[in-house]
Design brief:
Strand content: 25-35%
Radius of gyration: 59 Å
Distance between the termini: 186 Å
Number of domains: 5
CATH class of the largest domain: Mainly Alpha
Largest sheet: 5 strands, mixed
Strand order of the largest sheet: 2-9-8-5-6
CATH topology of the largest domain: Serine Threonine Protein Phosphatase 5, Tetratricopeptide repeat
């Protein structure tokens, strides 16, 4: 090998020239084919390296993608699980909120713990969800009762009537509740507001309904008789403004006779529990040109207990009557006091005559009185005398009186029903030496069945009472 600089021959393998010091570069002689071959080889190597690198990169990318997918799947699953749990909780909450049985169950739970407000809330929700369930309404009412909220308890019961308007059980619950607190007026109001005719009839003792009038208010060209009635036990009170005489808060006992004039009648009813109804008012304008007809009670008919014929005499009139079949006039008997109905068949005729001489039509009534009796009038008279002697009221059967001249005698007057007892009634007369015979104020009665003797008294208002002798 020679030095490329000085041309000196140097040994193979030397890196520097020993003569000139030039660096020796070992470069083979140029051969284009070899160069091409080397270049192709290098290119192939580079390609293979790149392919290997590409395959490794792909493997790493695929692995990363797999790992990423796993993470995404885990994250998505976790989110889905949370959503499912939340939706489940929400569904449970919605179910509970819309479940009447669940709300009632919670109400029972809080009621047992005496947490009444909470119990009312839950029972109220149960009722709202299932308003036709009376058990829920009853429990809600019980909660309010425990809280002394009676009005709300009643409202709970009232809701039942929306689905069963004729539930006597519901009305009984309300009535019992109000009665515990003595709220009778509220019982009346509840029944009137919520009850139909059938319910009012079933609970009539608690109802105070205004009285009804037999004749509608208005204008009339003749005298009229107005009667008032009620549906239950109690009393009617009325006032009259107009006519010749005004009446205030009088107890109604018989129909009202209205003649010429303008009348305003106001009335109200008071039941057995002292509950007062609302006031009703009627206006009547009467322009009559004749005497009003008398009102006769009782009506024609057959009777088995003693009766008294009572007459409502028209204002500014006298009433005359007969019972022998003839027509009455001003010369006939004048009616003053109730007339005892005679036994057997009888016919009474009545007529009114006013101060102007105007007459009414004749009113005729027919009666048959058949009272079961165990004693005759004569037997009763003998029993009366014996009893008066026994008690020392008279000295003997002749009616002799101790320390007084003359004697008492007893004359049959009529048969009457007094205090629920059918009596033969006898008037007492004082007979002085057969010179004068006057009726005393004493009256006696004998039970037509038993023969018991009674003292009969009469008040200024013609009210009779009896006391056993």
């Amino acid at each position: 090998m020679v030095c490329p600089k000085c041309g000196k021959k140097i040994e193979d393998g030397m890196l520097y020239c020993g003569y000139c010091g030039e660096e020796i570069r070992i470069v083979p002689d140029f051969n284009p084919e070899v160069e091409i071959s080397i270049e192709e080889t290098l290119n192939n190597v580079v390609r293979e390296i790149n392919e290997d690198l590409s395959d490794d990169s792909k493997e790493e990318t695929a692995f990363a993608e797999v790992e990423s997918s796993k993470l995404k799947l885990i994250y998505t699953s976790a989110i889905a699980m949370v959503v499912v749990i939340l939706l489940t909780c929400l569904a449970v909450m919605i179910y509970h909120d819309n479940s009447a049985s669940y709300q009632a169950k919670m109400g029972d739970k809080y009621l047992a713990k005496n947490r009444l407000n909470d119990a009312c809330t839950y029972f109220g929700k149960a009722v709202g969800l299932k308003p036709t369930n009376f058990d829920y309404r009853n429990k809600l009412a019980e909660c309010y009762i425990a809280m002394d909220d009676i009005d709300m308890a009643v409202e709970s019961y009232r809701g039942m009537l929306n689905y069963d308007k004729e539930s006597t059980l519901t009305f009984n619950k309300v009535i019992d509740l109000y009665m515990q607190y003595g709220e009778y007026e509220k019982i009346n109001d509840f029944l009137i507001q919520n009850g139909d005719e059938q319910i009012l009839e079933a609970f009539e003792e608690y109802v105070a309904i205004p009285p009804t009038f037999s004749i509608d208010e208005g204008n009339y060209d003749d005298s009229i008789v107005v009667a008032m009635s009620d549906i239950s036990a109690g009393k009617i009170y009325y006032s009259i403004d107009g006519g010749e005489e005004s009446i205030e808060d009088a107890e109604y006992v018989e129909p009202l006779y209205l003649k010429n004039g303008t009348y305003i009648i106001t009335a109200y009813f008071v039941n057995a529990h002292n509950i007062k109804s609302s006031v009703v008012s009627k206006k009547y304008v009467i322009e009559s040109q004749s005497a009003g007809e008398p009102v006769i009670m009782p009506l024609s008919g057959e009777y088995t207990t003693p009766q008294l014929i009572r007459i409502i005499v028209p204002n500014d009139c006298n009433v005359y009557y007969t019972f022998d079949g003839t027509d009455p006039d001003e010369n006939s008997r004048i009616y003053c006091d109730p007339i005892a109905l005679p036994e057997g068949e009888s016919v009474f005729k009545f007529i009114s005559v006013n101060s102007k001489g105007q007459k009414s039509d004749i009113s005729t009534v027919n009666y048959t009185l058949n009272v079961p009796v165990a004693l005759s009038i004569e037997d009763s008279h003998n029993l009366l005398i014996s009893k008066l002697v026994e008690v020392g009221y008279i000295l003997d059967e002749n009616g002799s009186i101790k320390d007084y001249p003359g004697n008492f005698s007893y004359v049959y007057a009529d048969m009457r029903l007094i205090g629920g007892v059918s009596l033969y009634c006898f008037n007492e007369y004082y007979d002085y030496a057969s010179i004068a015979k006057n009726m005393t104020s004493n009256r006696f009665g004998v039970d037509v069945m038993t023969g018991d003797v009674y003292v009969v008294t009469r008040t200024e208002n013609n009210v009779y009472s009896i006391k056993k002798l």
